[in-house]
Write a structure and sequence with these properties.
By secondary structure, the protein is of the alpha/beta class. Among the domains are: about 45-155, Nucleic acid-binding proteins (OB fold (Dihydrolipoamide Acetyltransferase, E2P), Beta Barrel); about 260-460, P-loop containing nucleotide triphosphate hydrolases (Rossmann fold, 3-Layer(aba) Sandwich), CATH 3.40.50; about 470-655, 3-Layer(aba) Sandwich (Rossmann fold). The strands form 4 sheets. A 7-stranded parallel sheet has the order 11-12-10-13-14-9-15, with helices on both faces. Strands 16-21-20-17-19-18 form a 6-stranded parallel sheet, with helices on both faces. Helix 9 packs across helix 25, helix 9 (about 215-250) crosses helix 26 (about 720-730) and helix 13 (about 330-345) packs across helix 20 (about 570-580). The protein is globular, with a radius of gyration of 31 Å. The relative contact order is 0.09. Bound molecules: adenosine-5'-diphosphate (ADP) and magnesium ion. Adenosine-5'-diphosphate binds near residues 271, 272, 304, 307 and 628.
Length: about 750
């Protein structure tokens, strides 16, 4: 009898257990059961041998055509050479050793079919064509000679193929799983029976059977459906519990007030709120009025106007005598938020000053780099409550920062902050927990949002403000040098018209090996990523600002060019940004520090050098820096990438649409799951084995629905002990990190 927690040693014996432990890090019966086949083959099928690549690890099904042993010329050894075929191509298998000591010649006579696993190598004999071979492949006989005459049923039999590893004989996993399945005792199915019925899912034992030794493709499909469900459900149940627990915490209600600072602000708004802004605003206003903390994710494409929504929420809290903190991921952004918020509020931000409005409050800025005096003042304003709004970077999280009555935390650009940081701020409010609003400009596909941000309610700003100008995007490719010349000309024209231009490079490029700013900002969760780092080998290093600057000064002689990157002193950064905002600069040459949030409506052209070095979402973000006012935006993607290359396809996609949601889906398709789920998930492919965020949206959605209902009716899962145990083991496990860090 084998329980799911049973060490494999007990069931399979020391030798096999050790091999599985060493080769695949499998320790218990459960580990082995969850080590699913990578793919399945028919017994009658032969793998096409022509497509094999040099250096590739493969498992192929093929038929032996020739067996030949020969002595080696120089050494006393002997090599057994076996040729296998798929009916057209051939592959050579070489086994070295002493004559007669080998099983291969007994097992593999002509006509035998087998699975052969190993790494493909190529050699060219002195005469003749290249030969591809596997040296000392693992093998497993699948059919003896003459088996062709056997029944169709037999030929159709499904053979699971497990990921091959050098350390293990090819049949070890299959036989071990078989042994385990034969002895397996499972506890009662953790999923409630009615749920399984409703969702037409099979039992767990049947699912393990079906995934490891399916008799039909149908059985296999049903098994996959059930096991996928479990993966999705467990995560969603854990998230539902988190949501429920968070919702049960106390918070101070901050209902909308009449005739306060928010009303005054609304009355002065120079534009009309979009429908989306109004609707989301109402959702948030209602949340803030509750006695439990809000946890809301506000996603809206670049330029959709999230800041106003957040500011109105902050003012609602201020109207209730509370304070709001706005956490920004970079100094540049914190400073910009500070400037734009004080700008929008005008005399409403001048409490205690001459000319301050009646309902006025104060806005404080707290960053890591400010001078001692400014910092002391800001700290004082935060602690005394004089400042209703405190804008800052990570510096806000330090222990020395205290608030009089922190009612709302707004986190801008969520993907740069972890849950720990959100929690650190929450801790700072005295009695109740503050409400939390998280904003992200990276449109997140629903599946990712449901899985990664599943502990947050989500609101979407789907529509850009009216009058928002069009952004046209063009690729400036290597085969059309005239386009590049035109680019510089265009920049001069814009400057002559009083407009401004961004030029972005992937690196700073002061010295060798400089990584540039993509790394500066710790973007583990950045869906934009840093481009296709994988295919960089052998290419020239990406363009750096410092290399481009002298050329620009030549090409754009007479224009005022400023430089902005992450290694500048914060004061310098601020000064450069300010000069650009004040139109004292025509061109801002920058790294991706301007990727998020920078808002200068007079900037009309964005030129991205080596555009192929950036990720899709990153390009989209960068492009969102222009076309923010009434002026049309133009984005030029300068690249060396050849037509038809993958890099060019990506750039063409970015040029073809400004729909951030469509682009992020495209981005997701090009990435591996681990990238999407972030650092916490990387290297732990174990938690989601079958479920994929791209293809299983319906499973994730259904699981979320069922899990939420179940957890609401039975929060501690006391009526579902099996499920509670599965969840506990998930949360025990370091997999809990995945939920935490999401
Ligand atoms: P994001 O969602 O990218 O953070 P912002 O909040 O920075 O976008 O808004 C972009 C610009 O659009 C700002 O200049 C803001 O003042 C302006 N804006 C916001 N809402 C509206 C609206 N309803 N109508 C017109 N302009 C708006
Ligand atoms: Mg913003």
């Amino acid at each position: 009898m084998a329980n799911i927690d049973e060490p494999l040693r007990k069931v399979l014996g020391d030798k096999t257990a050790k091999a599985l432990e060493k080769g695949l890090d499998l320790h218990t019966v459960g580990d082995l059961l969850h080590h699913y086949p990578r793919r399945y083959a028919h017994r009658g099928e032969l793998t096409q041998l022509s497509g094999l690549q040099d250096g590739e690890h493969v498992t192929v099904m093929a038929e032996v055509v020739k067996v030949q042993g020969r002595s080696l010329n120089r050494s006393p050894g002997y090599v057994l050479e076996i040729t296998v075929t798929d009916g057209t191509g051939q592959l050579k298998l070489s086994f070295f050793g002493r004559k007669g000591s080998y099983r291969p010649e007994k097992d593999l006579s002509p006509g035998t079919r087998g699975l052969f696993a190993g790494k493909i190598s190529t050699y060219r004999p002195r005469s003749g064509r290249e030969v591809r071979q596997l040296t000392h492949p693992q093998y497993k006989v699948v059919a003896e000679k003459g088996a062709e005459e056997a029944a169709q049923e037999w030929a159709d039999e499904i053979i699971p193929i497990y990921p091959s590893t050098k350390a293990l004989p090819i049949e070890t996993i299959g036989t071990s799983v078989g042994t385990v399945l034969d002895q397996l005792t499972l506890p009662a199915d953790p999923m409630p029976g009615p749920l399984l019925g409703r969702r037409r899912l099979i039992g767990l034992r049947e699912a393990y059977e079906g995934i490891h030794r399916p008799r039909t493709w149908d059985e296999l499909n049903r098994a996959r459906a059930r096991l996928k469900w479990d993966e999705a459900f467990v995560v969603q149940a854990a998230l539902a519990q988190r949501r429920l627990a968070a919702a049960a915490l106390p918070a101070t209600p901050r209902p909308p007030a009449f005739g306060g600072i928010q009303a005054e602000f609304d009355a002065r708004l120079p534009f009309e709120l979009t429908k989306g802004q109004r609707e989301v605003g109402e959702e948030i206003a209602a949340d803030l009025a509750l006695e439990h903390p809000m946890h809301r994710l506000l996603q809206g494409d670049v330029g959709s106007g999230k800041t106003v929504v957040a500011l109105r929420a902050m003012l609602q809290v201020v109207d209730n005598g509370g304070q709001a903190a706005l956490l920004a991921p970079t100094e540049v952004l914190a400073q910009q938020h500070y400037r734009s918020i004080t700008g929008m509020l005008g005399d409403l931000a001048q409490a205690g000053q001459i000319g301050g409005a009646e309902n006025a409050t104060r806005v404080a800025l707290l960053t890591g780099s400010q001078g001692a005096k400014a910092r002391k003042e800001a700290l004082l304003d935060a602690a005394s409550g004089a400042a209703g709004i405190i804008v800052g970077t990570h510096a806000l999280l330090q222990e020395s920062v205290q608030f009089a009555d922190l009612g709302l935390v707004v986190v801008d650009e969520q993907h740069r902050f972890g849950v720990e940081q959100r929690d650190a701020l929450r801790e700072k409010s005295g009695g109740g927990r503050p409400h939390v609003l998280v904003m992200t400009a990276t449109p997140i596909p629903r599946t990712v949002a449901m899985t990664v941000f599943g502990d947050l309610e989500t609101s979407v700003l789907g529509q850009l403000p009216a009058g928002r100008s069009e952004i046209r995007t063009h690729v400036v490719p290597p085969e059309k040098p005239a386009f590049l010349a035109r680019t510089w000309e265009r920049i001069r024209e814009e400057a002559a018209d009083g407009r401004q231009v961004y030029i972005v490079c992937p690196r700073i490029g002061e010295k060798e090996g400089d990584e540039g700013d993509a790394m500066d900002m710790g973007d583990a969760m950045d869906m934009g990523g840093a481009g296709d780092a994988g295919d960089d080998s052998g290419r020239r290093s990406p363009l750096g600002i410092m290399e481009v600057l002298p050329k620009l000064e030549e090409l754009l002689a007479g224009l005022r060019v400023g430089v902005l990157h992450g290694k500048l002193h914060p004061d310098e950064k601020d000064a450069v940004m300010r000069r650009f905002t004040d139109r004292d600069l025509d061109v801002l040459l920058a790294t991706t520090v301007i990727e998020v949030g920078v808002d200068v409506p007079n900037a009309t052209v964005m030129v991205i050098m080596d555009a192929d070095r950036f990720g899709v979402s990153q390009l989209h973000q960068l492009r969102g820096r222009v076309g923010r006012g009434s002026l049309h935006g133009l984005c030029l993607l300068v690249t060396d990438a050849e037509p038809g290359s993958r890099a060019r396809e990506r750039l063409d996609a970015v040029a073809s649409t400004t729909d951030g949601f469509r682009l992020s889906r495209l981005d997701l398709e090009q990435r591996r799951e681990g990238d999407v789920l972030g650092a916490a998930q990387a290297g732990r492919a174990s938690s989601l084995r079958l479920l994929t965020l791209q293809r299983d949206e319906d499973v994730i959605r259904d699981a979320r629905e069922e899990a939420t209902a179940l957890v609401e009716s039975d929060p501690a899962l006391s009526d579902h002990p099996g499920l509670a145990a599965v969840l506990a083991s998930l949360l025990d496990d370091d997999r809990a990190d995945f939920l935490e860090k999401a």
